[in-house]
Amino acid sequence: MPRTSSEPLSEPSSEPFCARTEALRALRQCDPLAKADAVRALYASVLQGDAACSPSSPLDEPPGLPGRPERPELVEPRKLGRRSMQSPEGRAVLLHALAHIEFNAINLALDAVWRFGGMPAAFYTDWLKVAAEEAHHFSLLVARLAEFGHAYGDFPAHDGLWDMCERTRGDVLARMALVPRTLEARGLDASPPIRARLQQAGDHESAAILDVILRDEIGHVLIGNRWFRHLCEQGSLDPHSTYVQLADQYHAPKLRGPFNFEARRDAGFDEAELAALAGLEERPPAAE
Ligand SMILES: [Fe+2]
Ligand SMILES: [Fe+2]
C-alpha cells in the first residue's frame, strides 16, 4: 500500500520499507527543517535495518523537484553582494549562503539515492549518510544564524548546485564526477580562507561550525571518488581522461586555486590529480 505524507517514517512492520522511495519523499519535502529531520530519521532507519534500498526498482520522477521553501529568492550569482566579515550582518549573510549550500547538498545527496538504480547497496547507504550529515550542517548553520536574528530565507541565494544536478540527471558517472568531485571538492578549497576570516573577526562559534563541515565534507568527496572510480572500473574507463571529458561535456566550472591539497588528498584524489591541480595554481588564470 502506498504511504501517504501523514504517515510516520517508521511504522511497525516486519518488512523493511524502501529507503529510495523515502529519499524521494524527503527530496519533495518543502519545509527545510522537516526535510532535515526526515533525512536523519531515514538514515537511522537504514542503520537499524527498518529501511532497505531496492537498487533495481525504477522510480518515476515527480514534477517540481526539489521541494524547497518559497524563500530564499533565487537570483543570478552575480547579483549576490559580498559583505565584510567584520559586521554581524556580513557574517549573517555568509552563514545564510552556507546554509543554502547545505540545503542544496541535502537535495543532491537524496537525488543520488532515488534517481540512480542498479548500484550496489553501499552506494545508497553512502549517499544517505551524506544526506544526514548535510542535514546536520544545515541545522548547525540555521541555529547560528538565529543567534544573529536571522532565518533561512532572509537573504537571496543562487541555484548553481541544483543546476549541475539537473544537467547530470541521466548519468551517474557524470554526477559523481561533477557534483562531489568538483563542486563539493571546491568547498574543501573555500573553507580555510572563510574560516580564517571568521576567526579574525572573533567569531569562534561560526569558525567551529566550519571545522565540523570541513571534516565531514572530506568524507563526502571521498565517497564521490569511491563511486566515480568504481564506475570507471566497471566501464574500463581511465578516470583521469574521463573526468576531463565529462567536465568539458557538462560545462563544469573551471578549477581555480588556491587548492586545499591536504584535504583533497584525504578525500581520495590521487597524486596525478593533485599534480594537475598544482599545475593550474602555477599558471596565471586564462582570460575568459
Ligand atoms: Fe555539508
Ligand atoms: Fe557534502
Automatic annotation (TrEMBL):
Which stretches are tagged as biased composition: Basic and acidic residues?
A: 68-79
Which Pfam family, an example, fits this chain? DUF455
Q: Where is this region: Disordered?
A: 52-86
What InterPro entries does this protein's entry cite?
DUF455, Ferritin-like_SF, UCP012318
The protein depicted here goes by the name Uncharacterized conserved protein, contains ferritin-like DUF455 domain
